[in-house]
Design a protein that fits this description.
Blueprint (H helix, E strand, L loop, with lengths): L3 E4 L5 H13 L3 E4 L6 H4 L9 E4 L2 E4 L1 H11 L10 H31 L10 H22 L12 H14 L2 H8 L2 H10 L3 H5 L7
Parallel strand pairs: 1-2
Antiparallel strand pairs: 1-3, 3-4
Helix pairs in contact: 1-3, 1-6, 4-5, 4-6, 5-7, 5-8, 6-7
Length: about 210
């Protein structure tokens, strides 16, 4: 069967998420590094966002769509439940994390370090300080949601967890995020537990460089 090709930069949390999905499912894939808005990406994504996927004649953009395709084509080790309530709970948390946590965690906090916008060419300290309380609020949401639970949704590791883990990895790489995560013991335990998964280890990137 034609190999899955994942296109995008490894440091992207959403690229990492689809790579983790392949790893969890034992699906062979190759990673083709490409920047957002590059010609190769825009051939597949109408808005130039990563990741994009190529599988023979099939092309897809958006990590959730790619995960759904992978789960259908390769049904072993499902990451998206079939039972209606379990499926809805996974979709609920994918949506909540993407719409309320990705921006403060990654677009504002992590990129505040990775793409410095300060007047001196360094990180914009005021912008970083401003987003830390928002990040702490979202960690509090996760703290309550994960209390007494091993997984974000349902009784097994799913794409809801895969979607979240790279974001937690991102904030943990920088001081304020690491402190906020450490101050959220339930989330910290969840992160440490799933950070031992081979899929997480094999897709690791260093956001500090």
């Amino acid at each position: 069967m034609t190999q899955i090709e994942i296109i995008g930069i490894p440091v992207s949390n959403y690229v990492r998420a689809v790579r983790m999905a392949c790893e969890e499912k034992g699906v062979a894939y190759r990673l083709t590094p490409a920047m957002p808005q590059s010609e190769e990406v825009r051939l597949i994504s109408p808005v130039g966002k990563i990741p994009v996927m190529r599988h023979g004649p099939v092309t897809l953009c958006e990590s959730r769509a790619i995960a759904g395709y992978l789960d259908t084509i390769f049904p072993e080790m499902p990451l998206l439940p079939k039972e209606p309530l379990a499926a809805a709970e996974v979709e609920q948390w994918i949506s909540l994390v993407n719409t309320t946590m990705d921006r403060p965690f990654i677009r504002e906090y992590v990129l505040g370090y990775v793409v410095p916008r300060g007047a001196d060419g360094g990180p914009d300290r005021a912008a970083i300080a401003a987003v830390v309380p928002v990040m702490e609020q979202q960690l509090a949401v996760l703290e309550a949601a994960l209390e007494g639970k091993e997984f974000l949704a349902g009784d097994r590791f799913s794409f809801a967890d895969i979607n979240l883990m790279p974001m937690l990895a991102g904030i943990s790489a920088f001081p304020e995020g690491a402190r906020a995560l450490a101050a959220s013991p339930v989330v910290a335990a969840y992160f440490e537990r799933h950070a031992r998964r081979p899929s997480f280890i094999r897709t690791a990137v260093d956001r500090r460089h």
